[in-house]
């Protein structure tokens, strides 16, 4: 089970990194990058503004990834609880079936 948990962590990390890269790419594509404007010289304030916006975007992306990680961990916990509940129910159903069939066999033996 521990190996499965580790592989799920690795997979989750890879998925989140992929999402992060896609978000960074999407923000860059729609962010109006001042370097793409064709102007070789740009004011210092514009450069600082762009840098501040880029840092803000990265912080928002990192926050979103942190939230996704916490949601995935919560979902994993709920999955484990559900699996335990289902296993318990299955065990109880099997026990009841054995009791039920055992009672029918005992009654059938008495009638012959």
Secondary structure layout:
Blueprint: H1 2-30, H2 44-111
Helix pairs in contact: 1-2
Describe the protein's architecture and organization.
- This protein has 112 residues and is mostly helical.
- The longest helix is centred in the last third of the chain and has 68 residues.
Specify the biggest β-sheet: none
Low-confidence stretches: 33-40
Oligomeric description of these chains: single chain
Number of strands: 0
Roughly how many Å is the radius of gyration? Answer: 29 Å
- End-to-end distance: 50 Å
Percent helix, as a range, is: over 70%
Mean pLDDT: 79
Written as H for each helix and E for each strand, in order along the chain, the element string is: HH
In DSSP terms, counting alpha (H) and pi (I) runs of 4 or more, how many helices? 2
Structural class: mainly alpha
Strand content is: under 5%
**Per the principal axes of the C-alpha atoms, what is the gross shape?**
rod-shaped
Features:
single chain, 112 residues, mainly alpha, 87% helix, rod-shaped
């Amino acid at each position: 089970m521990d190996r499965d948990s580790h592989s799920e962590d690795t997979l989750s990390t890879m998925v989140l990194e992929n999402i992060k890269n896609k978000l960074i790419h999407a923000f860059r594509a729609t962010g109006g990058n001042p370097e793409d404007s064709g102007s070789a010289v740009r004011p210092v304030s514009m450069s600082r503004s762009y840098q501040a916006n880029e840092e803000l975007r990265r912080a928002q992306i990192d926050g979103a990834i942190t939230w996704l990680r916490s949601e995935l961990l919560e979902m994993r916990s709920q999955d484990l609880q559900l699996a335990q509940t289902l296993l318990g129910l299955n065990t109880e159903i099997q026990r009841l079936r054995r009791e039920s069939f055992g009672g029918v066999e005992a009654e059938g033996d008495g009638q012959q």
